[in-house]
Design goal:
Shape: globular
Bound molecules: fe (ii) ion
Helix content: 40-55%
Radius of gyration: 23 Å
Strand order of the largest sheet: 3-4-6-5
Strand content: 15-25%
Number of helices: 15
Distance between the termini: 49 Å
Structural class: alpha+beta
Largest sheet: 4 strands, antiparallel
């Protein structure tokens, strides 16, 4: 499952509307705007769209996070009459007084898309989710369950109001939720010794010992986040809904993983159409405690910063076939390290059967592979090791047309853009100092 601080494509960012064009391949544009809470305000806006002949296909609302007396509206519209959007936005701003902010639509050629430079700027993503937690599709198991929908809204609200640096609010899970977790936990645990990779099996007992991973207890995100920080510096933050690929990947550059906190519907404990806490905690978390995997994940994030849209899609696909559905070699056998596999009882068995096609991880090919999202994958890619995957990723990232390199400074928790002599000198000094430590240590080992 992104917002900004000072500038994005030349626009000031204090306003609160965005257009997310790249996220949708079917010509649909999503946009958010906020309005003062008054009778007829929304009707005026809708009339504007109608007058310009733009068809709205989806609309949802929520209280504004920025201004208490405003409401935010998230809408999808058909992207057939895109030029008219300019007029509409201008009308929203000038005639109706809506606060308006554009993210990507007016991108000029060669403009580098905005990306967060400090870890605090990830807070802005909370305001840019593509769908809010309580909005369920008609075929979702919880669609007709008002209690479940209300519960989902509670979780979405926690994430929506969360800010970097705060402890992640503790949740008291219901007995029913704990039962659902217990079923998933018990079933998957029987498969891990034979199907999960070494790293997953190595970390899992530590999570049981330190983070409350038990059949009758749903662990708390805050406890896990603290644990991960001591292992690899990775941390969790709750997310209220779906983030764009660009925003989600940017989080990884800071070693931040956006995690859901709700659980799937109790009627189908072995199925979920979307990520839930079982997926995050049983699939993703163990691997983020592994230094090599953590670095690989961060490399994907760093490669995404300021990358053009087409490369974001490729990186998201690489993420899909590695972090979500990756297999790796262990001696002569294959094991699963992808979270989508490690959190699915059915697919974890299937992926190591003779049924799917298995291919070596070759990023030029993997990054353009099409894939289904609602059924088992017909093809999996095998990494020789996380180290090997990381090297391949670095090579792949070097082909991204970006006029600078970036590095993450863990002391300041900022992204440094290496596009000037001063930054390069700072980096050289840091490397020099580390080299000194290395040489000294080597001499002592002799
Ligand atoms: Fe996932």
């Amino acid at each position: 499952m992104d917002v900004q601080h000072c500038k994005m494509n030349g626009d000031p960012l204090q306003e609160s509307m965005y257009i997310e064009e790249h996220a949708n391949r079917s010509g649909v544009i999503s946009l958010i705007f906020s309005l003062k809470e008054e009778v007829g305000a929304l009707a005026k806006v809708l009339r504007t769209f109608e007058e310009k002949g733009i068809n709205l296909t989806h609309i949802e609302s929520r209280p504004s996070r920025l201004n208490k007396d405003e409401y935010e509206f998230f809408i999808n519209l058909e992207g057939k009459n895109v030029p008219a959007l300019d007029n509409i936005i201008s009308s929203l701003r000038n005639d109706i007084g809506a606060t308006v902010h554009e993210l990507s639509r007016t991108k000029k050629k060669d403009t580098v898309p905005w990306f967060p430079r400090s870890i605090q700027e990830l807070d802005r993503f909370a305001n840019q989710i593509l769908s809010y937690g309580a909005e369920l599709d008609a075929d979702h198991p919880g669609f007709k369950d008002p209690v479940y929908r209300a519960r989902r809204k509670e979780f979405a609200d926690i994430a929506y109001n969360y800010r970097h640096g705060q402890p992640i609010p503790e949740v008291t899970y219901t007995e029913e939720e704990k039962r659902t977790w217990g079923i998933v936990f018990r079933e998957l645990k029987t498969l891990y010794p034979t199907h999960a990779c070494y790293e997953h099996n190595h970390v899992f007992p530590l999570l049981e010992k330190y983070c409350g991973y038990q059949e009758d207890n749903i662990p708390q995100l805050e406890d896990i986040s603290k644990f991960l920080q001591t292992c690899t510096g990775f941390r969790l933050r709750p997310v209220a809904g779906l983030l764009s690929s660009r925003d989600f990947l940017a989080g990884l550059a800071f070693r931040v993983f956006h995690s859901t906190q709700y659980i799937r519907h109790a009627s189908k404990p072995m199925y979920t159409p979307e990520p839930d806490i079982c997926h995050e905690l049983l699939g993703h978390v163990p691997l983020f405690a592994d230094p090599s995997f953590a670095q690989f994940s961060q490399e994907i994030g760093l490669a995404s910063l300021g990358a053009p849209d087409e490369f974001i899609e490729k990186l998201a696909t690489v993420y899909w076939f590695t972090v979500e559905f990756g297999l790796c070699k262990e001696g002569d056998s294959l094991k699963a390290y992808g979270a989508g596999l490690l959190s699915s009882f059915g697919e974890l068995q299937y992926c190591l059967s003779s049924k799917p096609e298995i291919q070596p991880l070759v990023l030029e090919k993997t990054s353009v592979q099409k894939y289904p999202v609602t059924e088992f994958q017909p093809i999996y890619y095998v990494a020789e090791s996380f180290k090997d995957a990381k090297e391949k990723l670095r090579k792949f990232a070097s082909t991204i047309p970006r006029p600078f390199s970036v590095r993450y400074n863990p002391y300041t928790q900022r992204i440094e853009v290496l596009d000037n002599a001063k930054q390069l000198k700072n980096l050289a000094d840091t490397i020099n100092s580390e080299m000194g430590i290395l040489c000294n240590a080597l001499q002592k080992i002799k």
